[in-house]
Every structure is written in C-alpha cells, then in structure tokens.
Amino acid sequence: MTRQEIKLVISDIDGTILNDQHQLSPELKEQVARLQERKIPLVLASARSPLGMEPLARELGLKQEPLAAYNGALIIKGDAENYQVLAEHPLDRKELQKMLTLLQEEFPDLAINLYSGLDWISSQLNRWVQLEAEITGESPQIKEDLLDGLDQLGAIHKMLLIDEPEVIEKVYSYLEEQDFKELACYLSKANYLEITARQVSKELALREIASYYQLPLEAVMAIGDNYNDLPMIRLAGLGLAMGNSPQAVKEAAQASTLSNNQNGVALALAKYITKKK
C-alpha cells in the first residue's frame, strides 16, 4: 500500500527540534524553508506555554501556523500577545482547588506552577523554577499561596510540578491514588509532573490541527521523543520517534530517525518530504 503524501507536519520541541543545548540547527531551518516552498505547514506541539514556543516558531520562520501549547490544552494562532484561540481545554476548577490543597499540605516544599494563557504563576523561585525560566525565556509571577485568588484567574491550562525525580515519583504515586475524574497526570521528564484536563493529549491536538487544515490524518507526519508524544505518533499517517526516545516510544512509531543532537528532524524531513539533504 502506497503511503499518502505528507501535507502537514506536527513536531514536539524539547528533545526533538532542539538539541541538548536548546538550540535549533541550521540544517533544520533549511528543511523548514523547503517545507514552506511546498506549502506544507509545520506545527509545533509542546508542553511549553505560547510565550515559550513563539521565539522558536519565529526563528524557524513559522508565521501563520498554529501553536499547540500545554500539550494541546491551548491551541492558538497569531502573535502570542494578540492571539486567536482555535481550541482550549482548561483544568476543572473544583478538582484543581482540591489538588492544590492536597499538594500544599502533603508536599509543602514542592515547586507548583500554574499556566493560564500567557501567565505563569509559581509557588516559589527555587533552582528548578529558575532553570525552567532559563530554558523557556519566561519569567514567573511568584505567589506562595496559589489558592489565594485562584477564582480571579482566567482559564488554567496546565499545572507543572518540579522537584528531584524521587520526590516527583512520590507525588505522582500519591496523586494517582486520589479520586480525580477530570484531571490527568503524566511525566514529561523524570522530575517534571504535568497535570492537564483528562481529555488533553497530543492526539487530540493532532486531530484538531488536522481538522483546522481540513486534512486527513493519513496526510500528517508527527515527530516526538517521549511518552507524551506517543498519542500523536500512533495516530499520524507517519509517526516518527527520535533516536533519543525511550525504546517503548520507538517501538510504537512507524519509523525512527537520529537523535536531537544529530539533526534527526531535519533528516526525517529530507527523507520523507523534501528529498533533499
């Protein structure tokens, strides 16, 4: 059976288009320019916020393409400062309030971060939060008691918990034992625990973006490196795993490419779409 021609590419950011120094390669920029010559959109899908994604999109020359932020909890188009919401799936308020209460009681030293649109509110400015700020280029608002004034915030799209891997493992196990019907937890790194609305996933983001472009799923190529990328990798017409992916992610993908430090995405675009290295 002949594979359908790829007309849309959806890619993760960290560990995928970025190398371990959090940089984009000249080879990738060249391949993205070749995609644009063929009028094939490249859409970035990430756990990052819009503000953490837009500089990379701008550096790649992606001006009209949507951004799927917070793993698809918020999909926007346009400048981050003046964007149009294409789709959003915020956290349930009652369950969020319950989870925050439990976390502040059981893990008082945990760095808790809330993301609402462009706003990043953190419970403390420790080394983990400072490192996240350096990686994303954003600055959090510090508020020790996140429950205070919670009702005044707009839609909250994601909560991020950061600490040592062994602490996050305990937090993850604790939250999984609680009765949260509307919220879902997943590890994006060994020391990063993300909480979103249960229906949020990169699979849903892929469906919504493909619908926006009025393209069948078979015409989409999805690229990622970690477990939270698995839903879109499985769903896409061509799902690719990075060479730095865990073995389980590689096994679920149709194919794999080299690592993020070896221009894996640029090579995949050349192999499957532009045919030029």
Automatic annotation (TrEMBL):
Molecular function GO labels: hydrolase activity
Hydrolase among keywords: yes
Keywords: Hydrolase
Top-rank lineage group of the source organism: Bacteria
InterPro entries: Cof, HAD-like_sf, HAD-SF_hydro_IIB, HAD_sf
Family annotation (PANTHER family): HAD SUPERFAMILY HYDROLASE-LIKE, TYPE 3, PHOSPHOSERINE PHOSPHATASE
Protein name: Cof-type HAD-IIB family hydrolase
Species: Streptococcus oricebi
